[in-house]
Amino acid sequence: MKNKGILFLTQAAMIAALYVVLTVFINAFNLASGAIQVRISEALTILPFFTPAAVPGLWLGCLIANLVTGCAPYDVLFGSIATLLGALGTWKLSDWMKHNKASRFLAPIPPILANTLIIPFILAYVYGLPDGIPYLMLTVGAGEVLSCGVLGIVLLLALLPQAGRIFGNGASKGRAE
User: Fold this and answer.
1) Residues with Cβ < 8 Å from 63, sequence gap 6 or more?
2) Domain for residue 176, yes or no?
3) What pTM was estimated for this model as a whole?
């Protein structure tokens, strides 16, 4: 039992660290924030498909990344909550998705929706961006489709064959067949 707790904490910490590193990297190209953002770290939001440790890992990683990249306090809070809600959605769907191979492609939907619905309001009200909420939903949504949808699915498909070895806890049961 003790080893499962250590595995959970280790996975969560590694996912958080990876999220921060990827966000800081892409921020150097000015793509991690703003009306048009392609945060490659958001591809990691498919990881709750494999392990529940990804949920706190993604939330903590987003929180730290937002702090490190100089986001406003409300952005740090609500942006991290958006990532948390997306990760929770993917994790909640993961048991259902394991029974249908085609449904794996739904793994990025919760983070895409959470960020598309929450981040535009942060951009408009916290940063005072003059663009309308519908426009910001379009731009943020497009970035999320690229990050979570395209890159996330590529990551999911790359991890499937080795999921059991990487994540333990029966991560590949019913998923990698």
Assistant:
1) 76, 80
2) no
3) 0.89
